[in-house]
């Protein structure tokens, strides 16, 4: 069995935002463009996800599962447009939830799982 690698650790919150466990990469707490529109925040979260995947040599194409957290579930209608732009037909499975975020300007967040052998 291979070791679990904690790639990016947030000491303040006591969590790891990127973990490599075997062929799977777990990426958490992806948010960006705080205080901006829902579309800008979805793009910002995907930008952060993409940056974290690059830490382990992966791309968005490797993402197999996403949990999408919304402050307002009605904003779910914006998600498909952005995913079509960013994932070019290689869509992960996904689930949407509502959440009360810790800061007022946050209205969207992604947690994701990527598979190292899914790219190509």
From TrEMBL:
Pfam families: Ribonuc_L-PSP. InterPro entries: RutC-like_sf, YjgF/YER057c/UK114. Transmembrane segments: none annotated. It comes from the Bacteria. This is Enamine deaminase RidA. It comes from Pseudobutyrivibrio ruminis.
